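User: What would this chain look like folded?
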Amino acid sequence: MLSEERQNKIMSRITQKGSTTVQELMEWLKASESTIRRDLSELDSKGLLVKVFGGAVAKETAFNSKDDFFNSRKEHNRSEKLVIAQYAASLIQNDDFVYLDAGTTTELMIEYITCKRAVFVTNGFSHAQKLAAAGFSTFVIGGEIKAATESIVGVEALESLKKYHFTKGFWGTNGVSVSGGFSTPDVKEALVKKESMRRTREKYVLCDASKFSKLSCVSFGDFTDATIITTELSEDSGYRQYQHIIEVK
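Assistant: Here's the prediction, encoded as structure tokens.
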């Protein structure tokens, strides 16, 4: 296959899916890793896509380098978040030991949780207050307070997590893409998400459809590390082919 034809196929895939990995392209185009990486470098230099670690994303893929404040995000896509939160809450059973990540969608879960024998650990201090007020057995990890996301982060937070083993965990994310995985703007927050996810048996990332093909500064998990709960994706979205994505309406 000529390089021009191969690169046209790569651009077609990027346009359809928003992102792709080197491994995907190698298998699809029956080409070597060096060939694919060379093609991606050429397409990046032409400004047609953005080459990232392990693959590439569409030029128009949104990049977010900072967190908006918690209160300003509460109303953003609220109706979708409520649907996601209600479904996620239904997955919690009595005797589950649950990690609840700080975030606006995970916070909305609390009003829908009915299993009073579940025990919760969270790095969201507003989450901890609401869980305790609702009568749930609740633990909050220690560490540095990050006001923008109403979360607890830092070295002490990581140390706090090392003693736990969770049956289920629920996380928010700023972006989801095949090549970039789950990402967030802040490295301290990403490390807490990564460590808590590593210590959890059943992992769920909650994100409305607007988060797909978005990329932030720091990845905290690969695209297939967790089940994704989202609202309905469009028919032309390249993400609908993946079995670990649950669409709720």
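The mean pLDDT is 89. If you want, I can go into more detail on any region.
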